[in-house]
TrEMBL record:
PANTHER family associated with the record: BIOTIN PROTEIN LIGASE (PTHR12835), BIOTIN--PROTEIN LIGASE (PTHR12835:SF5)
Region (Disordered): 79-98
GO molecular function annotation: biotin--[biotin carboxyl-carrier protein] ligase activity
UniProt protein name: BPL/LPL catalytic domain-containing protein
Source organism of the structure: Chromera velia CCMP2878
Superkingdom of origin: Eukaryota
Lineage: Eukaryota, Sar, Alveolata, Colpodellida, Chromeraceae
Entry's Gene Ontology cellular component terms: cytoplasm
């Protein structure tokens, strides 16, 4: 029985269990494994990330989060969504994720083996891979053939280290946090269940310690308001806007002009969450077993700004400049400076051009 969450938390509108065979529900021949994930969906929250943090102990008590069980907390809208540059900490830069209806706002609360904590630094980038693949799954399996056809011309890209782009603009952001809370082992009668989070050599009767990790994901799918009006200077887009853009280009190629008025199509958010959940579960299982290397080819092929001159903010007032050559096997950014030196950066943030110009105007150092 689900316990009442502490006041003033709202009650979930519904709970949906994903630990059923996805192919039975979809009926389209696509096979998905059984995954033990529970969805708690709300009409509105301040933030799915903040709610998950505040209710983590209750999720543990109700055994919705164990060494083998996940929860995905989702909402139709957020009143104060957060991003990587606005974590809610005192003094942190104010950068809210615009949260109108029509988008995906979800926080995954999941277990991670304590013995594999060194891999947490790859969570954000691996999660962007899952989002990019879910976008391709979503348009590729859409019931409207026109969406499938247009989707073939979309190529989601990933930006180091936590964004997904479509057609040169940001469509998704990822925020990963480890609050330092242990999760309990699964009930003994379920310990034999297959899980990508137990080593293949682990005994079914001995479960290694696991920590709770929060993976917050926002995806602009079909926003009911104009994002550009509420998110300035961030170059954002949505899946619908990207599809409309492709359709408009196709119209121009056919008749030499005439702007498209937009596609009359349904973009099912629950279906997107279903596909995203499977991709994230699969991707983090691969990370658990093989580290970052299995993702290196995909990321380097889809890496935003690869081969271009960029500026990286090192968070201490220092800005590094050079050509982005790609990522290495450890997920670090490879930056070739003007002097020819190859720098390996494990932290930092790629700056937007307008932002860099403002900081240079303030006299910040560039090297």
């Amino acid at each position: 029985m689900l316990q009442a969450f502490p006041s003033p938390s709202p009650s979930p509108v519904f709970r949906r269990f994903f630990d059923v065979d996805g192919s039975e529900r979809r009926g389209d021949g696509i096979k998905f494994p059984h995954i033990p994930v529970t969805q708690l969906h709300f009409d509105s929250l301040e933030s799915t990330q903040k709610w998950s943090q505040a209710n983590l102990q209750t999720l543990k008590t109700d055994r919705l989060v164990t060494s083998k069980r996940w929860v995905v907390v989702s909402a139709d809208t957020q009143s104060s969504g957060i991003g990587t540059r606005n974590t809610g900490e005192a003094g942190s830069p104010h950068r809210q994720w615009s949260s109108p209806r029509g988008n995906v706002y979800a926080t995954y609360v999941l277990p991670w083996p304590q013995e594999k904590m060194s891999l947490l630094l790859h969570f954000a980038q691996v999660s962007t891979v899952a989002v990019a693949m879910a976008i391709e799954d979503f348009v590729g399996s859409h019931p409207d053939p026109s969406v499938v056809a247009l989707g073939q011309r979309l190529r989601p890209e990933v930006k180091w280290v936590n964004d997904v782009w479509l057609r040169g603009q940001k469509v998704s952001g990822v925020l990963c946090e480890c609050p330092g809370v242990m999760v309990d082992p699964e009930d003994s009668h379920l310990e034999g269940a297959a899980s990508p989070f137990l080593s293949s050599s682990s005994s079914a009767s001995v479960c290694p310690p696991h920590m709770a990790v929060l993976v917050g994901i926002g995806v602009n799918v079909d926003p009911q308001t104009d994002l550009s009006a509420s998110v300035k200077d961030q170059g954002v887009t949505s899946l619908r806007a990207a599809l409309d853009s492709v359709a408009a280009e196709a119209d121009e190629n056919v008749d030499g002009g005439g702007a498209s008025e937009g596609l009359a199509l349904n973009l099912d958010l629950q279906e997107f969450i279903f596909l995203l959940t499977h991709r994230l579960y699969e991707s983090l299982g691969k990370l658990r077993e093989g580290g970052f290397e299995p993702f290196l080819k995909f990321v380097n092929e889809r890496l935003v700004l690869r081969g271009q001159h960029i500026h990286v903010d090192m968070d201490g007032g220092r800005i590094l400049a050079g050509v982005l050559e790609g990522l290495d096997v450890d997920g670090a950014l490879l930056l070739r400076t003007e002097s020819g030196e190859l720098l390996t950066l494990h932290t930092g943030r790629i700056m937007k051009e307008k932002e860099r110009e403002r900081q240079e105007g303030d006299g910040q150092e560039t090297s």
